Each structure stands twice: as C-alpha cells, then as structure tokens.
Known about the structure:
This protein is mostly helical. It has helices at residues 3-20, 56-65, 69-86, 114-117, 123-139, 147-160, 179-199, 205-221, 245-248, 257-270, 293-305, 309-319, 347-361; strands at 35-37, 45-47, 51-52, 94-95, 223-224, 229-230, 271-272, 275-276. It has one domain (3-39, 51-361): Glycosyltransferase.
Amino acid sequence: MSLRRTLAEIVTRSGLILKSLTQPYSGSIAQSVTVTPKSNSHGHFWDHRQATLRHGAFLIQALYQLGYVEEAKAYFSWARYLLERDGGQGIQAYYTLDGSRHLPGPLVPNWVPQENLNPFQLDIYGHLILMISQYFKIFNELPEEIWPKLVEVADYIGQAWRRPDYGPGNSTGRPEHHVASKLFCWKALEEICNLATGLKKPISPRWIAEKKTLHRTICEQGFNTQKNTFVRAFGETDLDSSSLWAVLLQFLPADDPRIQGTLHAIQSELAQGVFIRRTRPRFEFQKEEPLDLLTSLQFATSLALSDRNEEAIDRLAELSTYANPMGLMGNQIAPTDHPLPEKFPCVATHTFLINCALYIGSHRLKNRINYPLVGEGQLAA
Length: 381
C-alpha cells in the first residue's frame, strides 16, 4: 500500500472520528470518551467526556476541509451560545457536553472547588477569537449580534494579558507569565482587528496599541537569547512544547531565526525519536511523561508551516502508524502499566493529524482551498 494512500485513509478515518464525537443536540465535540485515574488520586478520576474551545480554529478547519460542513457550523453555534451566555470574561476552558459550566461531580471529590477544575487560563480567549475569525474566513458570515461580545473579549484581553495565569499545560501548579498564554492574547488582538476589517467595524486604537506592546514584551521577556528559543514563562530558561504556538500562530515569519531556533531547541531537548515530549522533568524525583502524540503532531505541523515539508511528511507518516487497527489515536503512547492513554480517542490528536496533512498538501491544493488557513494570511481589507 502506498504512503499517500495510507495517509489519505488515516486522515479520512480521523475525520469520521471527529464527526462521531460531535453531539447532535448541542454541537459540542467530546474531547475524548475515556475516564482515567488522576495521579496520586486515591481513587479519584478525571472525566474526559467534556468539550473545550481549545484548538477550535483547527477543528473547524479540519471538519470543513473533509466535507463535514454541518458539524463545523454546529460547533461554531455551540461556541457562539457559550459566548453570548457567559460573556467576555466568563468563558472557561472546559464545559460539559451540553454546555454546562459545572463539570461532572461524581468523578471528582466534593472537596475540590469548581474553580480548581477551570483555573484562570488566558489562552482560551485566544482560541475563541481565532476560531470565530477562522469561521468567518471560511464561510464569510458572522451573526451581527456576536460582535459586541467579541469587543468585550478583546477589551478584557487588553488589560488581562498582564496577569499571570495557569497556562494551557501548567507543569508547576502556580500562576506564571506563560509565554503560550501571551501568544494567544496577542493572536486574539490581531484577529479581532482582522475581523473588524472584514466586517467593516471600527478598530479600537487600544487593541492596536496593546497588540504592539504585547508583541514587544513577548520578544523581550519570552525569548532566551542564549538558548535562541522561546521559553515556557517570562524570565525562565526552561523549554516546553508550548513554545510551538509561536510557530502555529505565526507570531513571526517562518524563516525568522527565532522561530527556527525554537524548532531546533525543541527537537534537541524534547525529542525522542519521532516523538516530542511536552516537557522534561524539572526535578530529579519527577518521572518523565509518556510519549506525546498530540505534541508530536503539533511539531510536524509546525515544520509544515515553516516550509520544511519533507521533514513534516516523514514525521506524519511514522506517527500515523501509532493509530490502532480502527484508526484511533490517543493523546499519548500509553505506559506499559496502563491499557489506554489518558485520552482515547483524542480529538485534538486527530485534529492536528488532519491539519498537518492539510498544510503539507496546501501548496498542491491552492486552487481547491479558497480561504486562508489558520496562521496563513489575513482577512481581506
């Protein structure tokens, strides 16, 4: 069987998985169907049968490109409902499948406060605005009543980005100035300006000023000149895979030495064969995390966005062999003492598998793709 045919079948199967996890009554998409024990949890569990706004732009793009237009529109409608209900400052990272803010109680100890299940994470606002912007790029439509809520989100980001948060993959358990969170705040301000242009709405001077200030701050405090890489948090030297968002969000041109330096550093410090780990242990007593399929596919996607297609193809081809006979992939390669990875199947993993293939093939599909891909170009003036 040819490599091209094998990848095409796996991409098609990934699309079917996304469709099958779409909830017909709400439009949300379950991030997984597994319930797994929490580390050192004494019998407590995390329920991954939840929905999230994370990776929403890439998710809508994957669904649309594979022909699942109704599912893409349903997911957008679910996100729109949350935005209109919760307001600009009330958006959280995870919801139940029907959109409830209160996450399942039976699987979580009663003494765990709800705010601990949805900590302050700034990146979610960037995911939300990027997703809505990508929806507009694809479908060239946006409900008029959603604009005031988007303005509310953008105004909130304009002042909230200065606060430390828990980050998208916090490994320390305390609020910090995570570079990935700042990158998503910058992207949110950029995309709200693009949306305003496309919708012929006024652009707040504050958005432009804060976007420039944030860009400069990230370059000055989030980049380590000695290691030539973006780092985990301001003032740190530690590197983790969240630095890939500098590439995926097109924070700088792909050929910028800081972008290429970040890719090189991640490959040097976090790679194990074809896999990229999320992070390295910060202390000697910590165990290494399982090999991470999601992060590895994000790295391959970053290579494709950086015009390193041959490397991306090789990585995608090898990573796709880790799907089970039904084409299902988790977020990690399960440790030997666990029958399944933490999330199985993992929507984010399948989403980035599809997008990686899409970016690799985009130079051959220019005549078939009539909208800017996520991170590739701006809205027309």
